[in-house]
Design goal:
TTLL10, ATP binding, 13 helices, 4-stranded antiparallel sheet, alpha+beta, TTL/TTLL_fam, Tubulin--tyrosine ligase-like protein 10, Dna Ligase, domain 1, D-amino Acid Aminotransferase, Chain A, domain 1
Length: 618
């Protein structure tokens, strides 16, 4: 559908003027460019067959590849995404402007993402400095990407401060804060972990546990110790001293770096000699003046976690379950769950073995075995295969409900993921166009208790075995479909449900009833989305919010001044504080209950994320 009129948007320079309008006495005529339309979700459109891989993301450095289109690099930026609302997902054949463009940084899932975008008629660019993209998907977060991001015009993968959930210290602090706030609100003791976290907002009705897709009901709140192993931070003196005091050799502990993955830097603590060596390292770091200047860079940026020594075994092998948490939209929040797959070790489980490949299930560790090439298909099980095995092996022997994997296990994983999201919700940076896919790893012990081990940003999207070829492309495609559809409905002020692109993902949280930020505003200025209005003389879709004028910039309201609660100051948290600013203090409900925990000061720009991609090759 072609536009009947065009508008010129000032972005990089003055408009060009034609020679015909430059005569004396005659006003020069402005040459306007037609606006490109941004595509919508693919729904059931078949994915293309391109198999190219993206180049590693190098911020501020152009990349070169034969599969690129860097023409018109200095031309006008890509059209507003609201132009997509009128089209079928492909640019107008009458448009003279190139694009829309997309950028992929890194190799993780690059072939799937590129094929999806090209099926829409989008064109791939390789220069990470360009800002005229419709979609930007990078493995490594860059401060420049968020600084130049245009809210309501672009889609950008990964929330700037997703480390509140996806680093060990970030997730620990988020859950502790929630536990402490909930125990304070209920005036009940919250345990050691709750007392160690006193920096979260007091709960509201919305923070109560999730019971069915998209609905939260006031029931018993999940307690942190019910799903998260006991954990201590080594970067805080009082916590590491508490750990060194309580340690005894009857229990194994596992030590992990806060922002690493693939099993890098992980080791087990089984005896006093190993603990003494760790204690000596932390003390030497305390005496190092360089460490005091950058406390997050030394060996203390770690956690120690109680090791689950009685895991449920599949034919004698340890396993965990990878599931996905999708934040498809942040204004309003639209949160989804999807099944993934089970990951198994190659070797039989021996709790006394020093070989980490028998303790850690990720593919990076299993690839170190010489048997991996022959047996790799047996290191990844589909959820259907896992369910069949549980039914056959444990259903009657352990008195489990039929199809335990798709009933009890699924519901528990969804409850835990919803709990984690709600704990971080008021602190996450939210702009229209941000979206994120987070990999969540769960362990099941031999009592069929479900434990959350960690949450990972940029989860592995490689497809090097048959199960992954069946699972990963569907996850990526539906992620992009839902991000596009929820973006468009938010931009037009339409109701989110039903979602035409929703297939395998299950809705965990629909934030349309939340208080959420105004387009162009900060997270501290919130509004409730008004119901869509109907035009009196039109049967078409609801009228979207009026766009900005062509020659003006959208004013950004000043953030509200934060109100600090009269509580002991929170412990500084390198993984949850914003760069250049102290972490927004938690908020307690007053006696009148007139404050909402989401009234946070606007977060600053995120620094470059240093956590390596989950599937980076050695």
């Amino acid at each position: 559908m072609a536009h009947s009129c065009t508008r010129f948007v000032h972005r990089r320079g003055p408009p060009t003027r034609t020679q015909a309008g430059s005569k004396r006495g005659k006003r020069p005529r402005i040459q306007r460019q037609p606006r490109a339309r941004v595509p919508g979700p693919a729904h059931e459109r078949p994915m293309g067959s391109s198999q190219e891989e993206g180049l590693p993301c190098q911020p501020s450095q152009p990349d070169h590849d034969t599969d690129s289109d860097d023409t018109d690099a200095t031309g006008p930026p890509a059209a507003l995404l609201e132009g997509l609302l009128l089209g079928d997902g492909k640019p107008s054949p009458h448009s003279t402007r190139p694009g829309p463009f997309f950028y992929i940084g890194g190799n993780n899932g690059a072939a799937i993402i590129s094929s999806y975008c090209k099926s829409k008629g989008w064109r791939r660019i390789q220069d990470s400095r360009r800002e005229d993209y419709v979609l930007k998907w990078c493995e490594v977060k860059s401060r420049d990407s968020y600084g130049s991001f245009r809210e309501g015009e672009q889609l950008l993968y990964q929330l700037p401060n997703n480390k509140l959930l996806t680093t060990k210290i970030g997730l620990l602090s988020t859950l502790r804060g929630q536990a402490w706030a909930m125990s304070k609100a209920s005036k009940a003791p919250g345990g050691t972990q709750a007392r160690l976290g006193k920096d979260a907002a007091a709960p509201t009705l919305e923070d109560l546990p999730w019971t069915s897709p998209g609905h939260l009901r006031p029931q018993r709140v999940l307690r942190m110790e019910e799903f998260f192993p006991e954990t201590y931070r080594l970067d805080l003196k009082h916590e590491r001293e508490a750990f060194f005091t309580l340690f005894d050799e009857t229990q194994t502990w596992i030590c992990k770096p806060t922002a690493s993955n693939q099993g890098k830097g992980i080791f087990l603590l089984r005896n006093q000699e190993e603990v003494a060596a760790l204690q000596a390292k932390t003390r030497s770091a305390d005496d190092d003046p360089i460490h005091h200047k950058s406390p997050c860079r030394g060996p203390q940026a770690r956690v120690v976690q109680r090791y689950i020594q009685n895991p449920l075994l599949l034919d004698g092998r340890k396993f965990d379950v990878r599931s996905y948490l999708l934040i498809a939209c942040t204004t309003p929040y639209m949160i989804f769950f999807s099944h993934g797959y089970a990951r198994l070790t190659l070797s039989l489980y021996d709790p006394h073995s020093s070989d980490l490949s028998g303790h850690l299930t990720n593919q990076f560790m299993q690839k170190k075995s010489p048997l991996y090439v022959l047996l790799k298909e047996d290191t990844v099980w589909s959820m259907e295969r896992l369910n069949r095995h549980i039914n056959t092996t444990f259903w009657k022997a352990r008195g489990l409900p039929k199809d335990w994997v798709f009933t009890t296990l699924t519901k528990r994983m969804q409850q835990i993921m919803a709990h984690c999201f709600l704990a971080a919700k008021s602190k996450l940076e939210c702009k229209l166009g941000y979206f994120d896919l987070i990999g969540c790893d769960f362990l099941i012990d031999d009592n069929f208790k479900v434990w959350l081990l960690e949450m990972n940003s940029n989860p592995a999207l490689h497809t090097n075995c048959e199960v992954l070829k069946e699972v990963i492309p569907g996850v990526v495609i539906e992620t992009l479909d839902l991000a596009l559809e929820t973006f468009q409905k938010s931009l037009r002020g339409q109701k989110m449900l039903p979602l035409l692109s929703q297939r395998r993902f299950v809705l965990l949280h629909n934030g349309e009833a939340d208080v959420w930020p105004r387009l162009g505003g900060s997270c501290s200025l919130r509004r409730r989305l008004p119901p869509p209005t109907r035009q009196a003389k039109s049967s078409g879709p609801p009228t979207p919010r009026a766009p900005d004028q062509p020659s003006t910039r959208r004013p950004v309201p000043p953030p509200l001044a934060p109100q600090h609660p009269q509580l002991p100051g929170p412990t500084p948290d390198p993984d949850s504080a914003h760069d250049g600013q102290p972490q927004a203090p938690g908020k307690e409900q007053s006696g009148t209950g007139d404050r909402h925990p989401e009234q946070e000061p606007s977060p600053g720009t995120a620094k470059e994320e240093r956590k390596e991609p989950e599937n980076a090759r050695p």
